[in-house]
Amino acid sequence: MAFKKMSFLCFLVIILSFLKPTSETHHHLRHRLSAAAPPRISSNPATSSRFQPHISSSVLFHSTLSLPTTSHAAASGGGEWSLLQESIGVSAMHMQLLHNNKVVIFDRTDFGPSNLTLPPGQKCRNNDEALKTDCTAHSLLYDVASNTYRPLMVQTDVWCSSGAVNSNGTLIQTGGYHSGDRKIRIFEPCDDFNCDWVELNLNLTVPRWYASDQILPDNRVIVVETTDPKEENNLYPFLHLLPDGNLFVFANQRSVILDFKNNKIIREFPVIPGEKRTYPATGSSVMLPVKLTGDGFPAVEIMVCGGARGGAYIKATQGKYVKASKSCGRIRVTDKDPNWEMEDMPMGRVMPDMLLLPTGDVIILNGASKGTAGWECADDPVLNPLIYHPDEPEKEKRFSVLNPTTIPRMYHSSAILLPDGRVLVGGSNPHVRYNFTGVKYPTDLRLYGSDSIRRSQPQSGSGSSQRFREVQRALPFYMHHMRDPQ
C-alpha cells in the first residue's frame, strides 16, 4: 500500500461524551498528546499493519466581500470588500458561528494585554503567563445581525486548541497551551448577556495541542492529534465525517479512513503528490458537496489545497521563505481504486482557508505565497480570494480570481461562512505579541466578510444562477430554524 515506505505515523484519538453535547476546531509548532473526558471517555488503540494509531484596544474590521455567483466561467475581478467594525480589540485567531447568528471569537492569552477591556465588575485573570493580573478580554461574542460585540472571559490559554459544535449548538473547545493544555471549555449560546465560557472541572487525561475535533453521529466529539517523529508537518489534521459514519483523516500527505467504533484503520489512500499539507506546512481541505441521487450510496470527494515543501518551516525560521504550493488534489474516497486528481491554483498559497458556499462552489482566501505557518515564518501575502467551481468540466475554467483585499491575512487569521451567505474574515498576528508598528505585517484586529449570495446578480440560465435562486428560496426557512431549532 501507499504507506509501506513512509515514516512511522501515530495519531491519538479521544472520544468525548457529554451529557450536554458540544464542539469546534484549530495553530503553532510543537507537539504533545492530549485527550478529553467529561462524563465518559473511550480511549483504545487502533492498529494497522503500516499505520499505527494510538487511541488512548486594537482594531477589528468586518468587511463584506461580494462574490460572483454568475456562470463558473466568470471573469476574474469579482467581489466587494466592506468594513463592519474598526476594532474589536482581539485578533481573530479562532472564530465559530453559533446557531443564533452570533460568532465566538478568541485569541491566545499568553502574549500580554489585548485591546479589549473586561467590563466593570468582571474578575481579572490571575493565572496568566505574561501578566501577573490581566484585566483584558481575549475572547468576544459578535452579533452578526446588529454588528455589535461584547467581551467574554476565557480563563486559560486557548492557543493551539481545537473544538466542535454539538447538535444542540454548544461549542466545546479542548486543549491549548500552558495552564490550558488539558482543559475542556464549553460555550452555550444565549440571546441575552448571561452566557460566557465555562471550564469543566474534569480535565483531559493528557495535554492536547494542535489537534482537530469532529462531532460524531451519536453526538460525541472525537479529538484527533497526529504525530510522526521523523516529520514536522503533521499537526492539525483534516477530519471529515463520511456518510457511512466513518472518519476520513488526512495528515502531511497521507490519508486513511478510521472506523472509530471498532478502533481500526479500514482504508489507506495513495499519498497526495506534491508538497506537505498540514501544520506548519498548512494547507486546507473541504468535502465537496455530496449529491444525493437516490441511486445507492453517494460518491464522496475530498479536496485539499495549498501547503509547503518539506523543510520549509526550518528555512523560514532562518529568514528563507520557500514558495508555497499551487496545487490542489481531489480524491473520491468512495471509489474502488481512488487516486488523487491534481490541478493548480492561479497562485501558490500556504495557510489558506477553504469554505463551501451555498452555491456549491468553494472560496479559498487568506494566507501567504511564501513560507509556512509560525511566528515570522511567512512572506508575500496572497490578497486575492479564489472561487473554485467543482462541477466545471474544463479544469482551466474552474478557478475565478476575485478582487484583492488590502489586508494581509497571515498566521492566526480565520474565515467562516455566515447564514446569510457572507464570509467573515479576521485575524492575523505573525508575532509572538501584538505588534502594530515597525513591522512588515502588523497585528490585525479587523474583521472582514463577503456579501456573495444576497448582493450578487447572477446571469440567467447559468448553473450558478440556478443554485443562487435555490439558496434564495431556502434562506428564510434556514434562518428561521437557525433561530428556533424546534
TrEMBL record:
Keyword Signal on entry: yes
InterPro entries (UniProt xref): Gal_Oxase/kelch_b-propeller (IPR011043), Gal_Oxidase_central_sf (IPR037293), Glyoxal_oxidase_N (IPR009880)
Magnesium recorded as keyword: no
Domain Glyoxal oxidase N-terminal: 93-224, 225-447
One Pfam family, short name: Glyoxal_oxid_N
Lineage: Eukaryota, Viridiplantae, Streptophyta, Embryophyta, Tracheophyta
Swiss-Prot/TrEMBL keywords: Signal
Stated name of the protein: Glyoxal oxidase N-terminal domain-containing protein
SUPFAM superfamilies reported for this sequence: Galactose oxidase, central domain (SSF50965)
Organism: Rehmannia glutinosa
Signal peptide extent: 1-24
Lineage top rank: taxon: Eukaryota
